[in-house]
């Protein structure tokens, strides 16, 4: 870890991402409360989940095109500037349609930023500079640090939201104005990220080289453009997107049912829910520390183990409805999610190169966000449909509808883990050093 943190460019990227992640979590909480304030209905909060669905479906192809043709550093800088402006505009008009529009647009901008960032990580750490150390190990640790800084900011973002909201209230900012300061601080974190990325070296691809390659390809009657459909023809991409979709099922079900599960099944209040969220973040960090020791691990096998572990934890959480087990389950779930997601994104980065890698990373983030939204909506709807009934699981006794849905979600995730091959994908031929899968 110290080796990576000594790399100036990677350290600056991490610092910028830590600050903007703090703003992201503040903004997410503020958005949910702001929507509730404007609508007076908890149903309207479901619209926040929909905002994570449509950008993934519509914006992923646009993001894929952007990161394969435009300079990655410029894409990230542009996305930060755009999101900062949107965060400033979002809270100033107390109309639900206005808020949903800008929240949707911010998600689309994030879909351009994320694959550009992830494609930059191998460049910043010099994945091929150390022939004595497997590149996958360096990538796994680097990806874990990027993700770890994001999830560590969950409890800090919640605390910052509460503090800024409290200060706004003491300043007599009432009505919709009580959330303006939170969104504007969120906008400021994007500005910090902008300057951190601006200080990085060039991350490619070179625009002149892209145009030259396109001209040469045109003479030969072929195209250099890589789209999502082309990436989906690669076995490694299909397998990883399947794994990401399964991970999203578990995350989405907990995202949708977590608050109600804590309140109605575990009989704990907001403090208990906050503790569970914090333990999930701690589990993520613990999982990262364990992955750090396995620099030459079989990445597909790690994905499978992480997904199976996630499914088992969700099943157990539904079966054993106690607060103590809930705390332990949150910790274990964070560890399992870390193993699956970090292994998946590292497998993509290590197995692909050039524009195919960029497109695959756009598909990775699109699939994760789309899956989260769909899983959250489906599990929430099923829990509502089952509400009020009594359900018995034989010798295990009666369970709450929310417990039943969690058990079902965990079972699907566990079953899905068997569709992930536990050996590296070596069946894909190399198609060039800058434009496809790596040679095995």
| Rg, nearest Å | 22 Å
Classify the beta-strand content into a percent band.
under 5%
| Spatial shape | globular
Spatial gap, N to C terminus: 27 Å
Largest sheet: 2 strands, antiparallel
Q: CATH topology of the largest domain, which one?
A: Growth Hormone, Chain: A
Keywords: Cell membrane, Membrane, Transmembrane, Transmembrane helix
Transmembrane segments: 12-36, 42-63, 148-167, 240-262, 268-291, 303-321, 327-348, 360-382, 402-420
GO molecular function: transmembrane transporter activity
Organism: Actinomadura rubteroloni
Can you describe this structure in just a few lines?
The protein is mainly α and 440 residues long. The protein has 15 helices and 2 strands. A hairpin with a 5-residue loop joins strand 1 and strand 2.
Task: Fill in the keyword field for this structure.
15 helices; Growth Hormone, Chain: A; mainly alpha; two-stranded antiparallel ribbon; 2 strands; 440 residues
Task: Please provide a written account of the structure.
The structure is a single chain. This protein is mainly alpha-helical and 440 residues long. The chain folds into two domains: 1-205, MFS general substrate transporter like domains (Growth Hormone, Chain: A, Up-down Bundle); 224-423, MFS general substrate transporter like domains (Growth Hormone, Chain: A), CATH 1.20.1250. It has helices spanning 2-5, 8-39, 46-69, 72-89, 96-125, 135-170, 180-198, 207-219, 228-232, 235-265, 270-292, 299-319, 323-351, 354-386, 401-417; strands spanning 391-392, 398-399. Strands 1-2 form a two-stranded antiparallel sheet. Strand 1 (391-392) and strand 2 form a beta hairpin. The longest helix is centred in the middle third of the chain and has 36 residues, at 135-170. The chain is globular.
């Amino acid at each position: 870890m110290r080796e990576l943190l000594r790399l100036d460019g990677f350290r600056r990227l991490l610092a910028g991402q830590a600050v903007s992640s703090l703003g992201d979590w503040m903004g997410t909480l503020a958005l949910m409360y702001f929507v509730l304030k404007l609508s007076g209905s908890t149903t309207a909060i479901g619209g926040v989940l929909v905002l994570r669905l449509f950008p993934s479906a519509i914006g992923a192809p646009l993001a894929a095109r952007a990161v394969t043709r435009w300079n990655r550093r410029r894409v990230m800088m542009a996305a930060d500037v755009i999101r900062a402006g949107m965060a400033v505009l979002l809270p100033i008009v107390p109309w639900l349609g206005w808020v949903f529009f800008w929240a949707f647009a911010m998600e689309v901008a994030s879909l351009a930023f994320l694959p550009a960032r992830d494609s930059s990580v191998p460049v910043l750490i010099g994945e091929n500079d150390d022939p004595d150390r497997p590149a996958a190990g360096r990538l796994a640790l680097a990806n874990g640090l990027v993700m770890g800084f994001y999830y560590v900011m969950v409890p800090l973002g919640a605390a910052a939201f509460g503090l800024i909201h409290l200060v706004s209230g003491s300043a007599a900012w009432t009505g919709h104005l009580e959330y303006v300061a939170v969104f504007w601080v969120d906008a400021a974190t994007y500005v910090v990220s902008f300057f951190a990325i601006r200080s990085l070296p060039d991350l490619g691809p070179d625009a002149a080289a892209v145009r030259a390659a396109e001209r040469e390809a045109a003479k030969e009657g072929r195209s250099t453009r890589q789209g999502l459909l082309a990436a989906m023809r690669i076995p490694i991409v299909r397998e990883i997107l399947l794994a990401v979709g399964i991970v999203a099922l578990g995350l989405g079900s907990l995202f949708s049912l977590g608050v109600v599960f804590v309140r109605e099944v575990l009989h704990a209040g907001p403090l208990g829910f906050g503790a569970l969220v914090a333990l999930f973040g701690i589990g993520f960090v613990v999982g990262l520390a364990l992955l750090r020791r396995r620099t030459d691990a079989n990445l597909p096998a790690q994905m499978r183990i992480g997904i199976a572990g996630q499914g088992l934890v969700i099943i157990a959480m539904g079966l054993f409805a106690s607060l103590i087990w809930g705390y332990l389950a949150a910790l274990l779930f964070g560890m399992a999610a870390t193993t699956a997601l970090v292994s998946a994104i590292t497998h993509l980065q290590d197995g692909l190169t050039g524009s195919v890698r960029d497109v695959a990373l756009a598909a990775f983030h699109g699939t994760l966000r789309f899956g989260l939204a769909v899983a959250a909506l489906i599990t929430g709807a099923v829990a509502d449909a089952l509400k009020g009934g009594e359900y018995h699981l034989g010798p295990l006794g009666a369970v709450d509808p929310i417990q039943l849905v969690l058990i079902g979600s965990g079972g699907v995730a566990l079953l899905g883990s068997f569709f992930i091959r536990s050996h590296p994908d070596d069946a894909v031929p190399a198609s060039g050093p800058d434009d496809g899968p790596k040679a095995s």
